[in-house]
Amino acid sequence: MQIHIQTIPFEVSDAILENTTKKLEKLMQFNQRIEKCNVILKEEKNDSRKNFFVEVHLIIPKEDLFASERAESYLQAVDMVIEDLKKQIIRSKEKLAH
Predict the structure, then answer these.
(1) ∠ at Cα 43 (45, 36), nearest 5°?
(2) Which end of the chain is more exposed for a tag (fewer CB within 10 A), N or C?
(3) Structure confidence at residue 26 as a pLDDT band (50, 70, 90)
(4) pTM of the predicted model, to two decimals?
(5) C-alpha–C-alpha distance, residues 11 and 61, integer Å
(6) What are phi and psi of 73, to 5 degrees?
(7) What contacts 11, CB < 8 A, 6 or more positions away?
(8) Nearest-angstrom CA–CA distance, 96 and 33
(9) pLDDT digits (tens, 9 = 90+) for 40-58
């Protein structure tokens, strides 16, 4: 799986990038056919405490999955997106099985 992480409009630490990559690679346990993963990390300035935004687009043959979350830290947002994608992958596999 190719993973492309884009940060808008700033740089994030290597630790955050490594953590994000490791967690995304674990999605391969649920579907070996994931070809690409496009990630956008954004920090939005607003009054809310939830200004860290993570968006993930998984490209799988014949299907694309998408999830986005906003949280108080990138790590929280990544964890929430991963959970959303796990559910979507499991649901899509169940559909194919029927």
Answers:
(1) 155
(2) C
(3) very high
(4) 0.89
(5) 31
(6) -150, 160
(7) none
(8) 14
(9) 999 887 767 778 999 999 9
